[in-house]
Amino acid sequence: xxxxxxxxxxxxxxxxxxxxxxxxxxxxxxxxxxxxxxxxxxxxxxxxxxxxxxxxxxxxxxxxxx
Length: 66
Fold this sequence. Notes:
This protein is of the alpha+beta class and 66 residues long.
């Protein structure tokens, strides 16, 4: 398969733009983490992460009303 890819594209690796597949935004994610947060990738939007113990936190106070 690698030989076929090289023959058709002249490359050993294909490229995929994941933004074309994404149907949710990171700001639609809610979570409770117990620990430090690290910035790993530059995002234009932010998830809603609360630093607390998920078992001792009232989630209804942190989720949007439906």
